[in-house]
Specification:
about 130 residues; alpha+beta; three-stranded antiparallel sheet; two-stranded antiparallel ribbon; about 40% helix; elongated; DUF742; DUF742 domain-containing protein
Amino acid sequence: MPSEQPRVNHDWLDNDAGPVVRPYAMTQGRVAPSGGDFDLVAFVVATVPDMPLGPQLQPEHHAIVAAAWEPISVVELASQLDLSIGVVRVFLGDLRSAGLISLYEPPAATQPHDVDVLKAVVNGLRAL
């Protein structure tokens, strides 16, 4: 009978959570979403009822589409799926390119801020 080798403790293994995967490994090294950038408060909505299984789609892609049946913001989605915001943005870029989700940005996020309003807020805070 061959003897079993002793278990080696690895830094990347968390006994409570299981193996830890680095974010860049999940996104194959990509750090920016394909198809352009979007705001963190943009709403995500799934566009197809049954997501086709493809070799390029990971379980996280499926989880995003499942969570986006009702409008959900990008930040809430990252929190709900317990993924970093960077990873979620890359996956959302993939899904948007495939036509599986739609992103709706609130008008305030796409328009530049009014400098006069910001100055009035700062002056009001100083007056306190």
